[in-house]
Design a protein that fits this description.
heterodimer, A: 293 residues, alpha+beta, 7-stranded mixed β-sheet, 4-stranded antiparallel β-sheet, 6 helices, elongated, B: 305 residues, 28% helix
Chain lengths: 293, 305
């Protein structure tokens, strides 16, 4: 049976290929997946998880993580910030029908024509050492009583924003925890503007082993918003890109025929039962070539 | 299982081929002055007919593609040295005025004589071609042979990085410099059409006769093309080009094609561009292959670890 029995063009990508691409991105652009305060520029060994970067990254002097401002300590006067890091350490996809990703019981087994997403993220916070408290507390007390004209030593007028650089206590060891997120997604065709795109849609997600349940729900709610509004829209692929951008190739060869060619998904179910199809560990797209007379 | 698979059906190839034929025209003109004479050309051509066929032996066959000339003018000009007579004056005694002869020059223009016959209606070519697509890896660290046989034939400069390159590997070529069946068929059809149009200004009778003339001309083309069809069939059967011109043409094409890829993919392949001082993200491409069979062409590749 030929790949193109049911359409003019056929494109497929295997889950292992996508996961390798993800690993390459994580290793060559680690700053997309790791966020930390400047303290870790000199102390990368203190991060929750060592960052595996490609040799070219360090050779080019590229950052291993995106620098973040320290986490402000509420009401502290003078301002104090805590070191922290947020790291996304694992990211993998699993197309139906293999089960390289074991979904948690809450999500059940992976349905047909769906893909599973696994993501692991770790958060670490540098707690203030007791020695440092001894030094900081007199400063904080002095700062508080300087507003002594106000009742309750100024509790009614907490500083709204930090007016100067915060004091950032050093860290000997981060306190880290990791969360695992599982999601079930599917692909569909749809327009963005005038063009047809392959889009990824979220069905359900689950953050495992988090208590209390309300906190888990809140985090899942936030993760869903980030995925649906922030990340997935950026992963939409224009239909021409899936087949090596035929019109661009023709233009490069000096042939101005792009306006006569368009690519459209093969109709479902007239031509194919599923399009795009997620099966046999692959994402398959069936595309027809329409040539205007 | 390959990580990436792309397949194109034979029907899509045929429709794309038809689209290319409709859009692909070539025209050029030039005129050079060599002193005593000028030489030039003014040509415009397009493609007609032909078919494309994907075959089980991993080859693609383009069959009987006609090259049609809309203009095929050869311009020859001759610059004859200027010849002048007269212009002198005869001094006459006073009071008779001097008699001056008018100066008459000939062949003052450049060129003085120019002819530009148009051979478009007399010339037609037909080409058949069989070849396969081959993927090869260009490793920039491997030194080129010395001397480099491709040095003069390379259209695109050598890449500065590793690449997967796709080449056309010609098997056979049949080029009819003078496609006599089509030339004769066109001449007969044009002559008869003109005669009938002159005799019968319009109406269904004329349309009917013109349709019959078209059919007869096609029949003549087919009959006259039989020897060429047999030659192409034999050439395809034995996988060798018959005829000195075709043999040399295949050799030249083979050599040219092996030096110039029709498509190239960088390895590693850039998927995220450099931005804000960050290096680009590149993925290694492995095991790129191209193969054709009766129904489709398939390109496959893996992503390196």
């Amino acid at each position: 049976m030929a790949f193109t029995d049911r359409s003019d063009l056929y494109a497929a990508v295997h889950e292992e290929g996508i996961n390798r691409v993800v690993r390459h991105i994580m290793q060559q652009r680690p700053s997309l997946f790791n966020y930390a305060t400047p303290y870790f520029l000199q102390n990368p060994g203190l991060l929750c998880v060592p960052i595996k970067a490609a040799p070219e990254v360090t050779a080019a002097g590229n950052p291993l993580f995106t620098v973040q401002t320290p986490l402000p300590v509420l009401a502290a006067m003078p301002p104090v910030g805590l070191n922290y890091c947020l790291q996304f350490t694992d990211l993998a996809l699993d197309f139906h029908d293999s089960d390289t990703i074991k979904l948690p019981p809450e999500l059940g087994t992976l349905p047909a024509q769906r893909l599973a997403l696994y993501m692991k993220g770790c958060f670490g916070l540098g707690c203030v050492l007791e020695d440092f408290y001894r030094d900081l507390i007199p400063l904080a007390e002095a700062g508080a009583v300087s507003h002594g004209d106000k009742p309750f030593y100024g509790l009614a007028s907490l500083p709204s924003s930090q007016e100067r650089d915060p004091i950032v206590p050093p860290v000997r060891k981060l306190t880290c925890f990791c969360l695992e997120l599982y999601a079930v997604l599917h692909f569909e065709w749809g327009p963005i503007g005038k063009d047809e795109y392959l889009k990824m849609r979220l069905d359900r997600l689950e953050i495992v082993d988090l208590k209390p349940e309300e906190m888990e729900n809140i985090l899942e709610c936030y993760a869903e918003a980030v995925l649906r509004l922030g990340i997935l829209p950026r992963l939409s692929i224009k239909i021409e890109k899936m087949v090596l951008d035929i019109t661009r190739l023709l233009r490069q060869q000096g042939l101005q025929v792009g306006q006569q060619i368009s690519l459209v998904p093969a109709p479902v179910p007239a031509a194919v039962p599923h399009n795009p199809a997620v099966e046999d560990d692959q994402l398959k797209a069936f595309v027809n070539l329409v040539i205007q007379p | 299982m390959a990580h990436l698979t792309l397949a194109v059906s034979e029907g899509t190839f045929q429709r794309s081929f038809d689209l290319l034929k409709r859009n692909l025209t070539f025209q050029d003109s030039d005129l050079q002055d060599y002193g005593a004479f000028t030489l030039g050309y003014d040509v415009k051509m397009h493609l007609e007919g032909g078919s494309v066929d994907l075959r089980d032996d991993n080859t693609i066959q383009i069959k009987e593609l006609d090259i049609r000339w809309d203009r095929l003018k050869v311009i020859i000009g001759l610059d004859i040295p200027r010849i002048c007579v007269g212009g002198g004056c005869i001094n006459m005694p006073w009071p008779i005025p001097d008699i001056c002869l008018p100066r008459i020059c000939v062949f003052s223009a450049d060129p003085d004589v120019s002819i530009s016959p148009d051979f478009a209606s007399l010339v037609a070519q037909e080409i058949s071609f069989t070849g396969s697509l081959v993927a090869r890896y260009f490793d920039v660290s491997v030194p080129l042979p010395s001397p480099d046989p491709c040095q003069l034939l390379r259209v695109v400069p050598l890449p500065g990085n590793n690449q997967w390159q796709i080449f056309v590997d010609p098997q056979t070529m049949d080029l009819d410099l003078f496609d006599f069946p089509d030339i004769v068929g066109d001449l007969i059809e044009d002559a008869l059409t003109s005669a009938v149009t002159a005799l019968i200004p319009g109406g269904w009778v004329r349309d009917l006769i013109l349709a019959i003339i078209g059919g007869v001309a096609d029949l003549i083309r087919t009959i006259l093309d039989i020897p060429d069809d047999i030659e192409e069939w034999l050439s395809d059967l034995f996988n060798v080009s018959f005829g000195l011109l075709d043999f040399i043409g295949t050799l030249v094409l083979d050599f040219f094609a092996s030096c110039n890829p029709i498509y190239a993919i960088d390895d590693p392949f850039e998927i995220l561009p450099a931005a804000g001082g960050l290096i680009p993200v590149r993925i290694p491409i492995r095991n790129l292959s191209v193969r054709a069979h009766d129904l489709e062409m398939v390109v496959q590749a893996d992503v390196g670890a």
